[in-house]
Structure formats: C-alpha cells, structure tokens
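Internal tracking record. Fields below are filled automatically when a chain is submitted to the structure queue. Please do not edit lines marked as system-generated. If the sequence contains nonstandard residues, flag them in the REMARKS field before resubmitting.
Queue: standard
Priority: normal
Entity type: single polypeptide chain
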Amino acid sequence: MRLKDQFRFVRQNMKKNKTRVFMTILATAMGCAFLIVLASVGFGLQKSVVKEITERRVMTEIDVHGREGKDNTGFRQITDKDIPFFEKINNVKAVTRRKELQQQTQFTIGNYQEDTQAFVTNFPEEIKAGFELSDGRLPRTKNEIVIGYNFPLNLAAKDAGEDLFDNNGQVKKKYLYPDQVIGKTIEVTIRQNKDGQQVEKVFPLKVVGISQKPKKDWVQDRNVFISDELLRDIENFTGTPRGILLDPNSQESTQGLEEMYESYNEVKVYAKNMESVQGIVDALQKENYATYSVVNELKEVNMVFMIAKAGLIFIGTIAILIASIGIYNTMTMAVTERAPDIGIMKAIGANPKTIKRIFLLESSYIGLIGAIFGTVVSYGISYGVNLLIPFIIKQAFGKDTMLNVIFSDIPPILPVICFIICFLVTIISGFRPAQRATQVDVLKAMRREV
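SYSTEM-GENERATED OUTPUT FOLLOWS
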C-alpha cells in the first residue's frame, strides 16, 4: 500500500468517529496550549529582565575594580601604570578613568547653590566612549569645568527651605537659577581640619560645557568635571589625596593614603562591539584584574531563567501526557472497531509493518493537529495576557506598572519544542494499539471476535 493510500485510509477512518477524534484533538490542543503559555511566562519575564539590564547598562562597558597581587600579595586600585595595558588589548575602543573629590562639595553662584560630587576625568577617552556635550565646549584651562545635564535643574535658591521641591520631587521653577550657567563663574568651597580648626578655601570655576541629556529619564547627571590641575591645588590645600577631610578628633594622618594620589576611583574599558566584551574580560582576568560587565550579569540571569523555563516546560509536558491517555484510548477503540478491516488487509497480504504504520500515522495525525490548534490558541492567550494584566493591575492598584514588563512571550523555538514533545508522546501512545493491530487473528477478525 502506497503512503498516499495510507493517509487516505487514515482520514476516512477518522471521519467515521468525528466526535471521539475531535475530543481527543481538543484534549491534545489544551495540553499544548498549557505547555506553551506556561513556558511563555518564563520567556516573557526573562525578556523583560534582560531588556531592563541592557537598557540600564552600556553593553560594551567593562568595570575594572582593581588588581589582585600575585601570590595573594593584596588588592590594589588601578593606576596610570595599568592604563597602557588596557589600551593594548584587542578590540578596546576607550579606557575612561575618573578620580572623585573625596568630600561633599558645595557649588554656589550668588544666592544659588547645589551639593554634588566632582570628578577628574580624561575627556579624550570619554569622547571615544560616547560622552557628548549638549552645550558649550570642553575645558582648556584648569579653572574651567563641565557640568552634568541635571546640574542647572537643581541649582536652587539657598533660602528656599522646605518648599524647595514639588510633588514629583523636582525643584520648583521659581527657586531655580534664572539664567544660563554657560560662561558663569561658580565657586566651590573646600574644607579641611587643621590644628583642631576647620578652614575653608573657595575656588572660582568657569562653566564652559554641559553634558548631553541622559537617555533615560530616571538617570540624574549632576556631576561636575574638574581638571587634574585643580585637583592638585585642592590636595595641596588639604594636604590629603583627593581632598579627604580628616577627622579633627582623631590622630589620623595621611600615612598609608599616598597610593591614592595616583590611583583611580572608577575605571571602565569599552569594547568596540558586544562580541568583543568576553574576550577583553578574559584577557583582564588572566592578569588578575577584578572586572564586571553586563555580560556577566546576563549569564547569571539567563542561567536562572533557563532552569525556570525547563521546569515550566516539564510541568506543561505533564498536561500533554494526560492528553496522551485520550489518544491511547482512541487508538485502542479504533483497533477494536476496525478488526474486520485489519483482517481483510492481512488476508490479502498486507505487511504487519504497514498496518502498524497506519495506526501510528493516525495517532501522530491527531497529535499534530492538536499541537497546531494549541499553538494558535496559545498565541491568542499570550496576546490577551499582555493586554489585560497591566489593565487589571491598574484597576486593582490604581496606577500603572513601574516597569515595562512582558508577561508572556512566545519565541519560535517554543512551538517547535511543543511539536516535538507532542509528536513523541503521540507516537508512544499509539505504539501499543498499533502493535496490537498487527496481532489481530484473521479468522476472528472476519467473525468480529477481536
């Protein structure tokens, strides 16, 4: 019997028992839909978390925290001696490094002030890494500075008091500095405790540039970038590295702090593309540098979700296994009802393998049709979940979700996995009835005594 004829025979037999076959297909479709929708929750949440991580961090950014000495001789911060090695690593685009002024600095202009942090940075490398200005230019002299985009938005009147912020936590417009800050002179006050008394020194600074607006609204860039020469002047005044404010009530000295003069608080290596990140990390770790990149975090996140998705697929598979009981029952009854047909086929010389193949084709036919319907339904459920859950949350709690969460996502691989599982289960379910069909006695079958 040709394969084409076998398919025609299967379809004819399925039409004879439409109701039973339909219910079996329905059970299989429900099992497949349950598997796909359940697993899609894991895929959706993984996609949301990964998206959130990648949006918050630059994908090509690698933080270098320090270096572990050989033979466990201690951990040290990054200095100028390390930078040439970083720059020579293949596919490195830029190496940014920053020194932070180690005291809370107050910047004032007339009756307006703002407390924020000041950094020394290497602007050529910052530009390579993607640093841009929204207005002005880069510093050329030691008393010129660049301020963060949000610095002018927080430069407020000193006498504002408790009425400074609005309901959204923003400085009220009436208290903001009313003029452009580019070209203006801002004073920074540096303090130090000497001989039991606190002394202050004011450094005048000229604002020449404002950084680009952060890509995310929740990011606040209020930093002030000063020159390395200015930092040296501050250190000469305080007598401490990075202007550290000594405690007047202690006998603390600058001994042991000398290495801070040449070290950096923050060093970042930027790869030319995302594919190069892992190679650069491996090269740094080989030389005992402590590193962190978003790639490390994604590995951990993906591992957790891989385990979660495997568990959800396993639970969903149980639903298909339950549906397989219906397939087994349907095929068993089919063998009983078609005993005369089986007897006729065997009487005219049909090969037992052909008979077995016919019943296996029918069981797999039922399973695959159920998988197709289940997949279509699961896509509809997934769309409804993503549409309705945020609405339900808003109605229940009175506000939108803070994060752009994807509650259900069905990648192409998920229906493929479902089809494979469903096909294997239906083959196994139909194998025993198919085997029984080959053992039907011809004479008994002709007398309908199976």
